[in-house]
Structures are given as C-alpha cells and as structure tokens.
Amino acid sequence: MDVKKFRILYVEDTKFDQIILKRLLEKKCEVIFKLTTVDTGTEGLKKLDEEEFDLIILDYRLPGMTGLEFLEELRIRRIMTPVIFVTSKGDEKVAVDAMKCGVRDYIVKDEIDLDRIINNIKEIVLESSFPKELDPKIVGYITKLFSASSTINLEIIENQKSKMGIDLSLNELVLVLNKLVESKYLKAEPLCSTAVCPFCDSLKSKLRLQCPECKNVQLIKGEALEHMNCGNIDLRFKFDKGDGETVCPKCGKKISQIGVDYRKVGSLYKCSNDHLFSLPDINFKCSECGKIFNLDEAIIKILYQYKLTEIGQSRIRLGSLKENIFEENEKPQNQDDITINVTEITKRLLQ
Which CATH number fits domain 6-129+321-349: 3.30.365.10, 3.40.50.2300, 3.40.50.300, 3.90.800.10? Predict the structure, then answer.
C-alpha cells in the first residue's frame, strides 16, 4: 500500500535533541514519517520555501531569531502549517505568547512528552486525510465507532452519540456519512426502512398500538371465535371455562363442534374497554422529544449500513490505532545517528 509520509520539520539547534526525537518517533510512532532537521530559523524558513510540511516542531531558543520571531514570519508568509512549540522550564509567558500566535501545542523541552507529540501527529493526519468541510471531531467520533465494529448503521450511531458527547441531528450525520461515501472512504448498503420522528429527526421512538375506537393503549391479541347461534365474536379465552368446556360468554350456551356451533375468525385485538378490532392504530412516541406521531406523519428513511473501504481502512482507523495499519518506518541511514552516545539514548528511550 502506497502511503504518503508525514513530513515533519524540526527547527532545533541542538544535534543531540534532533537525534533523540527521531529515535523516539521511530520507536513509538505508527505513522510513516519523514523528519527534516534544521539548526536555525532562517534555514527553517528556507526549507518551507522549498517544500511542504505537515508539522513544524519549533524550539524557542534559536540562533539568529527566536521561535516567536519565526512564528511571526510564518504569519507574514501566510504559512498555515501546524506548529508544536518547544520551550524551556520557566518560559510560561513565552508559551502563552506562542499560543496566542496560533501554535497547536507547546511542550517543555526538559519534559518532552512524546505521547502528546504523537497524538498531535495522529490528529493532523486524521484531519488532513478527509474532506476539508468535515468537522474533525465528527470524523474522530465515527472513527471510534469503527474501532469497535467493522460495520455501523444509523441506529448504532444514534444510540452511541450521546455517550460520546456528539450533538448532531440525524440529517447532519447522514450528510457526513454520505460525504465519506462520495470520497470513497465508506461504502453504503441498504439495510431497512424505518420511521423517523418528524419533530426532532430522531430514530429513537417506541411503537404504540391504540384502539381505533377509543384510543386505549392497553391491548391484547389472540385467536377469536364466533358463536354461530347468537353471532357473538370474542377471543378464545373468553369461551374457555376450564376442563375442556367451551361456553359462549354472551348467551351462556355450550359450543363444541367447529363449523356447526362455532367458527374460527382468526387473530383479533381487544382493548381494556372491550372493543374488538382486526388492526390497531399504529403510533410512535419519540424517546427524544416525547411527542407522539402516527405512521402518516412519520418520516420514512432508508437505513444504510456503512463499511470501510480499503482507503477508509488506511485512514479512518488511525484515530483509534486499534490496528497497526502503517508500515514500519525506514531505519536511519545517517552515520551521525549511528555514532551518537548509545548509553544516553538508551536511558532517554526507557524514561
């Protein structure tokens, strides 16, 4: 699988720090990356003129210009590449100024948090891998669903979205999923049709059966019999008196011979007000807004189940990293990397 490398520009004048970061990323980062290192801000800006990068890791203390001055140059040149700012201990004000300049994150140099760097990389890859108009939070939410199941549908999404802190209507979710289908990240297969609340667009509703005459919701269903002599029709349990004796509840006469005394009518419904009918009225009560609507008022939607395509598998699972879908990084070839103090590197890797 041909996967584009994640391009990182590391602006850092200390060679040891350059090598350590590269070693740590090779050890723990699951994204294929290319790390380009420069010693000064001037060299960094030149590199940005020559090629594009996905992330800049920027040290504050640099020869020639500070990290803040470098950020100002990025602003002037309208370079929007995400930046992780690296400061020393005690540089809280500098860090605050950097955040005001729009850096994505800042890290204290003596307490390099590799997990934070890798999380930033994963988020940036995830954001850049999908259509720009999609909210990264929504894409991340869908990613989490796919980390638990290879197939999802709108019912799964509707049931899980509140737990995951996503406040989206059904139509908004459908638009996102359809965009991912159009972009070849997902494929959609028809699953079934369902009734959707016309008031709040929710899939969560409970079926309510009502008596068509009195609107009573306490119903029972059973086999019905008709007494041929008096014409009484009722549910079978009303005729059964026990010990195999069958008596018409209306006229009190025994009935025993089918086709002569009685006939089977089929299944009927009965409400607690004793109204008998063949089919109840069908209504729904929305679990979200509490409103009641009937089948004519309901919005009928086709539910689809969504599966990851090959492209989707290489992108959308990145957010959860449940599976390692990226190739191992290439081993460093630089001789300077090999001759660096091995003892010190080992100690830093084990921290």
Answer: 3.40.50.2300
